């Protein structure tokens, strides 16, 4: 629904051909999944557990400032690993093919206040199917922000930089509320359905467990380091929340990313679906460590094309996907983290105000083509 | 408070410490074979037996309850990153001092797990285990006269029995393609030399497949013997017929290894076992649609294979992934995405 449709130069046949080429990339990875990939995720999981264990151990002595720093840093990284490279990807079913019941989308639970099954519904199902379709994909602005010029402005949006900042700090709670569709369910009638009540209860239970662990049990175990451990876990959660929020903002918000109208996806073909994922996502460039810490969501475009491929393969897939972008003359939106975060935030600020000038009409591509 | 109650309180507290993981997730890092862990074993050695068979020495976890001679164990091995389960007879005696058990595996052509175990398994690797089971075992009272009728790797449960018990009068008729294919050949010949066993080897490459009627000549008193037979289906079918015809069917105990191989076809009869519905499906319609059409409540989400909101256990039969053409066969614990899978022959979906 942007002024100029960046895919207008593609014919219907080209779009289907693009779909077939993407399917071929997918099949290649599926056929070559094996021992190395399994070893990868097992190593990451075991490293995460050891790091968390050691960090919590160090925090027992957190009254000593260097121990506080070390433990907090370790715990922050462990929590990020749990949520990003491990939790997000396992819950996508990326590792289900291993048939290991302990590393499976149906059994995994993560260090997050949103219960895994609720998150799977809102994320895997709604967001990934309806990527960037306004009104269907709640990830767009999380229901609290205006993310597109075409959305109607309301004075409420003046505050959206603040809402976004608060959402970043308490991101896991934001996600839990969002998975519950809290906004929609504020009406009393909806709130009282047994279905909603059961889900709200599950979230409550999960929050209780997480809070008890981080803010009561572990500080108590630390004895004399009670307060410093409390501060450490709070900080680790804050760091994890701000980090994941930043990474996720970079996935669909930066300038150049397209949004779509509800009616544009009616009767969508496989090729068109792929195309929407390509135009609706943005990557983050950087080192291998950077990709790892984002849970490979730095390869957001590839992840949206193939959400169930193992994350460790996105880097190699990206090379081929990028070549297709070039072949079909499409814009591959990518950039280093600071640039992408800045770009996303700038959009949040810009759209908190009403549109500056009346929208220009899209130039008539058909006419251009005829003229050419 | 009793000590059991105390322990369960302590465990609850520990669970609060490790949530959302379980204490066992951390304990598994250091002690995967401890008491109370999921049952696993560690491969400690692999000894070749013949060109295509090997004995795997496994140290089972502390929860192992022990076996009876002749029983088998299901083993879950990670082959090319994917966990596959197969059953193998236990070949070690029940009183082995070091607490280890052995299975003896023959690599079958295209057998994923057997080839992996025989040729690629490395000492130190963990495998998943079930408790041993099976009723191909000796009765409490030792029979006076025994006949073992075996072929190929059908000798493995029998070897477990021979190593476990001293019989007074035991005869074995064993078939294998060539002498060097006879698993445990040296050990069998040692038993023969010690007069503990009478053995007839049938080498099928030169002698042809054993004609069961030859038993009258090979083991004239076969009908008086308590018989245990294990081998390919052809041999067992023939034996069952032979014993039935002579009216001594109750003397024959058989063990079949592999249930029939699933023949992957195109479409088939789909059973939704939890609902008790059966419908005919073609090979192109997703099972999700088939189920919904039949009025079965199917979990679903994106309907295009990306959200994993439709995964359901496949209890029997085979399905085809509509995107890649890949066939998935039913095995315990196998889940399929019903929105992108179609029937590849008759199958049973747990819904
Ligand atoms: S319904 Fe989404 S994967 Fe099957």
UniProtKB/TrEMBL annotation, chain A:
- Give any Pfam family that matches: FA_desaturase
InterPro entries cross-referenced by the UniProt entry:
FA_desaturase_dom, Fatty_acid_desaturase
Q: Which residues form a coiled coil?
A: 8-35
The reply to whether Coiled coil figures as a keyword in the UniProt entry is yes
Keyword line: Coiled coil
Q: Which domain of life is it from?
A: Bacteria
Which residue intervals define the domain Fatty acid desaturase in the entry? 67-334
- Identify this protein by name: Acyl-CoA desaturase
Automatic annotation (TrEMBL), chain B:
Q: Where is the 2Fe-2S ferredoxin-type domain?
A: 268-351
Q: Which residues form the FAD-binding FR-type domain?
A: 36-139
Names of required cofactors: FAD
A single Pfam family it belongs to is NAD_binding_1
Q: Which parts of the chain span the membrane according to its record?
A: none
The record's InterPro entries line, in alphabetical order, gives: 2Fe-2S_ferredoxin-like_sf, 2Fe-2S_ferredoxin-type, Beta-grasp_dom_sf, Cbr1-like_FAD-bd_dom, FAD-bd_FR_type, FNR_nucleotide-bd, MRET, OxRdtase_FAD/NAD-bd
> Known PROSITE patterns for this protein?
2FE2S_FER_2, FAD_FR
Keyword entries, A-Z: 2Fe-2S, FAD, Flavoprotein, Iron, Iron-sulfur, Metal-binding, Oxidoreductase
Q: What is this protein called?
A: Ferredoxin reductase
From which organism does this entry originate? Answer: Streptomyces erythrochromogenes
